[in-house]
């Protein structure tokens, strides 16, 4: 019996302000978080407010492709 597509998938969240501003001049890097989402409940891209250590504040982290 084939499982098909998994309901729970692993996604990567990336800071949108770091990516948009080509990273801060002082520090190098882009904040990324790894989490899971339920494909049935959230079919579109996931966006969460998480802490970015490079911006030193809470920013929106959006789902990116692997």
Automatic annotation (TrEMBL):
Chief site of localization: plastid
GO cellular component, one term: chloroplast
UniProt-listed Pfam families: Ribosomal_L33 (PF00471)
Chloroplast keyword on record: yes
GO MF term set: structural constituent of ribosome
Presence of keyword Cell membrane: no
Biological process, per Gene Ontology: translation
Places the protein is found: Plastid, Chloroplast
InterPro entries listed in its UniProt record: Ribosomal_bL33 (IPR001705), Ribosomal_bL33_CS (IPR018264), Ribosomal_bL33_sf (IPR038584), Ribosomal_zn-bd (IPR011332)
NCBIfam families the record matches: PRK00504.1 (NF001764), PRK00595.1 (NF001860), rpmG_bact (TIGR01023)
Family: Belongs to the bacterial ribosomal protein bL33 family.
Protein name: Large ribosomal subunit protein bL33c
Lineage: Eukaryota, Viridiplantae, Streptophyta, Embryophyta, Tracheophyta
């Amino acid at each position: 019996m084939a499982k098909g597509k998994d309901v729970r998938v692993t996604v990567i969240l990336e800071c949108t302000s770091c990516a948009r501003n080509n990273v801060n001049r002082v520090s190098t890097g882009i904040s990324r978080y790894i989490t899971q989402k339920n494909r049935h409940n959230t079919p579109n891209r996931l966006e969460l407010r998480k802490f970015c250590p490079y911006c030193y504040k809470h920013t929106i982290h959006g789902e990116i492709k692997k």
